[in-house]
Design a protein that fits this description.
Blueprint lengths: L19 H32 L15 H31 L6 E8 L2 E5 L5 E3 L1 E5 L4 E7 L4 E5 L4 E5 L5 E5 L5 E7 L11 E7 L1 H10 L6 H11 L24 E3 L5 E3 L2 H9 L22 H13 L11 H6 L23
Parallel strand pairs: 1-5, 4-10
Antiparallel strand pairs: 1-2, 2-3, 5-8, 6-7, 6-9, 9-10, 11-12
The structure holds dinuclear copper ion.
């Protein structure tokens, strides 16, 4: 139930996530504050024009008593109000961008002009997303081509989907129903058609929906197959020490590079290492790995990452994650690598 049943016409989209009511309240506060001061200032301006109008041609205004007190008052009060707006907005922002623990992780890739999603057990869907009620859901997102943006008005959730980078968003659905999904970043001719539905189901209904879906194996399983078929295992296994670092247990750890810098082996680093292996070499290894740019799609890279995660230490949510990277320029970790561009001609898997 929206907290804004102010008008008979729908003033706000439905509220269907834990963020919705607080975002609405904040928005209502801003609208109310703006309305209040517009009325007060407008009314005072008219009143003063009449009350203090010039009555004689030679009239000179008298100096005002207590002008300093007045100046300080109308500086300090707006300052406090704007700091309150800032603090409240920042709190909502951090709640939304702090990665949740124990979330259901779903991979999303944007592509002109469709949304693909893959659930942890491997079920895929296009231009649709089925979610269990009352469960925290984290979306790890990237784009195969250009900038898109994943927007679910009923959840008050919007996040850019950027080629060459992983962005994260999360929410907790609070109401069973079907909601709109929009792309909200102009991405070409059929941008307006890049829409879909978000379906929130009771947890049991979600389970049976998953069971009815066609699973091609979990992303981690698919990644394991790719790992073998791309012959990654030739170098990245224990017995082959010397050619490439072993990847078991590597995810989320600090890696020392050949230039002495360190980098966290997170999603962004692994992706970069697949596409541009020699930019950040782990110390002690030769620059012999070929690039896989153009040979793997963004979806396949996500599967490889899922596999490396599955053989790495368990993530507890406090581990360094891409949430910190998503907001910062890619490469900010060591300040020398530019943002990784996505292969525009990456093969598609649809
Ligand atoms: Cu995708 Cu607009």
């Amino acid at each position: 139930m929206s907290i804004l049943p102010l008008f008979l016409i729908p003033f706000m989209p439905e509220s269907a996530s834990t963020f919705a009511d607080e975002v609405d309240l904040y928005f209502l506060f801003l609208v109310g504050l703006t309305f209040f001061f517009s009325v007060v200032i407008g009314a005072l301006a008219i009143f003063f024009m009449v009350r203090y109008r010039r009555r004689r041609p030679d009239e000179v205004p008298e100096p005002i008593e207590g002008a300093m007190v007045l100046e300080i008052t109308w500086t300090v009060i707006p300052f406090l109000i704007s700091m309150f707006i800032f603090a409240w907005g920042a709190k909502i922002y951090y709640d939304m961008y702090k990665e949740p623990k124990d979330a259901l992780e779903i991979f999303v890739t944007g592509k002109q002009w469709m949304w693909r999603a893959q659930h942890p057990d491997g079920v895929r869907e296009i231009n649709a997303l089925h979610l269990p009620l009352g469960r925290r859901v984290k979306l790890t997102m990237t784009s195969e081509d250009v900038l898109h943006s994943y927007y679910i008005p009923a959840f008050r959730t919007k996040a850019d989907v950027v080629p060459g980078r992983y962005t994260m968003t999360w929410f907790e659905p609070t109401k069973v129903g079907t909601y709109h999904l929009f792309c909200t970043e102009y991405c070409g001719t059929q941008h307006s058609g890049m829409i879909g539905t978000i379906t929130v189901l009771e947890p049991s209904a979600y389970q049976s929906w998953l069971a009815g879906g066609v699973s091609e194996g979990s992303p981690a399983k698919a990644g394991e197959k790719l790992f073998a078929s791309l012959a990654c295992s030739t170098c990245h296994q224990d017995q082959n020490r010397g050619r490439g670092p072993t990847l078991a247990g590597a995810f989320g750890t600090q890696r020392v590079l050949d230039n002495g810098a360190t980098v966290v082996a997170d999603e962004a680093y692994i992706r970069e290492s697949i596409l541009m292996p020699n930019i950040k070499l782990v110390a002690g290894y030769q620059a012999i790995m070929p690039t896989f740019q153009g040979q793997v799609s963004e979806e396949q890279i996500l599967q490889l990452i899922a596999y490396i995660k599955s053989i790495g230490p368990k993530q507890d949510g406090s581990a360094p994650t891409m949430a910190t990277q998503a907001g910062a320029p890619a490469g900010a970790l060591d300040g020398r690598s530019p943002m990784t561009p996505a292969a525009p001609n990456a093969p598609s898997t649809n």
